[in-house]
Amino acid sequence: MNCITCVEYIIVALMILSAVLAVEWRDLLAAAVGMAAVSLFASILFFMLQAPDVAMTEAAIGAALSGAVFIFAIKRTQRFETEDEEKPGWWVRW
Amino acid sequence: MIKRALAIITLLIIGYWLAQGLAGVPFGQDKMLVGRYYLEHVKEQTGAVNAVTAVVVNYRGFDTLGEVTVLFIASTGVGALLWRKKKKRTARTEGSVVLTTGTSLLFPFVVLFGAYIFIHGHLTPGGGFPGGATIATAFLLLYMAFVTYEIPHKVFEKTEGLAGMGYVAVGLIGLAIGGYFLFDWIWQTWGWGQSNIGRLFSGGFIPIIYTLIGIKVGTELSGIIDNMLKEGVSE
Fold first, then answer.
1. What's A82's DSSP letter?
2. Beta strands in B14-135, from DSSP E residues, in sequence order
3. What is the SS3 assignment for B8?
4. Rounded mean pLDDT of chain B?
């Protein structure tokens, strides 16, 4: 296994991890950060798969603009998902 | 709990099904059918060195027109949803001195780089959409650093419409000269720039269209940011 492959495995693992966290977190600001992380790793993966055009578009749209738009929407609504069943903690709810 | 388990089981079944389908596709091998045609003929047919932008603007120009339309409809929809008679910025705290100074220093460089990306779409990676998004990011920086900053609305909305109309006009000129919509008249009929492929003034109408698309996308996304950051003021 050469090293490009290990780096790709690491990035895919990080991307899956941040996707799961972006869904799991109850704080929506944190979830927006997780979404931006997913698109950052997607952009790196596109670059490693030798598609620089797609990587640039993904970085410009996914990391900067859609993150900003999500954060503006959160600013005008509310930051936390409010549910009554939140009390016992996510491992019980799961 | 039970909902989650069911959802995960369903997703696993769907994932297994997709992986089963993808297992037959060998990765990294030559499976090009129409792709080979693009790669072999892209230089003499379109004059572009970057095959991706040649496909996006030239061979499959209708797709790009559709994408631009989708973006325009998104911008119009945001504007219609958040429409109020009087709108104002609601930011209360000015950014720190470092942020404001850094923003006013960085702004021209970011705009310059965005313009570089969309002007050189036929030579380097990028094109109209990343370039326009970069320019919109520059305006986002201004919005976040300054409490009272607003884009000049009259200018921006008119520029956006004129750039979109310019794209259609380039296509219609192609219809008049070459017989079909989005015909590359600069390259195919005039032969302009055929001696210096790979230089800035080559590539047929790709730089022109990408400049129009870059201006359109930049003004459009700035308009979306503006709409989202302002709140209606009740009298």
1. -
2. 87-89
3. helix
4. 85
pLDDT greater at residue B187 or residue B70? B70
Q: Residue B166 and residue B151: Cα distance in Å, rounded?
A: 22
- Contact between A58 and A35 under an 8 Å Cβ cutoff? The reply is no
The two structure tokens encoding residue B219? 């003004």
A83 band by pLDDT with thresholds 50, 70 and 90: low
B78 near A CB under 8 A: no
Tell me the C-alpha to C-alpha distance, in Å, between residue A87 and each of A29, A90, B2, B43.
20, 8, 18, 63
pTM: 0.85
Would you say B58 and B184 are in contact if contact means Cβ atoms under 8 Å apart? yes
Burial of A8 (0-12, 13-18, 19+ CB in 10 A): middle
Interface contact flag, B134 A60, Cβ < 8 Å: yes
Q: The tokens of B107 are what?
A: 């702004």
pLDDT at residue A93, rounded to an integer: 56
**What is the pLDDT at residue B234?**
66
Predicted pLDDT of residue B93: 79
What percent of chain A is predicted at pLDDT more than 90? 45
Q: How close, in Å, is residue A91 to chain B by CA atoms?
A: 10
pLDDT of amino acid A92: 55
CB pairs under 8 A between A and B: 50
β pairing state of B87-89 and B230-232: antiparallel
Q: What share of chain B is helix, strand, coil (3-state, %, to 5)?
A: 70, 5, 30
Is the distance from CB of B141 to CB of B108 less than 8 angstroms?
no
Q: Position of tokens 């993966």? A: A45
Beta bridge partners, A80, equal: A27
Helix (H, G, I), strand (E, B) or coil at B231: strand
Give the whole-angstrom CA distance, residue B78 versus residue A76.
14
Chain B residues with CB-CB distance to A94 below 8 A: 1, 4
What CA–CA distance (Å, rounded) separates B20 from B142? 49
Supply φ then ψ for residue B84, to 5 degrees: -135, 160
Rg (CA), chain B: 23
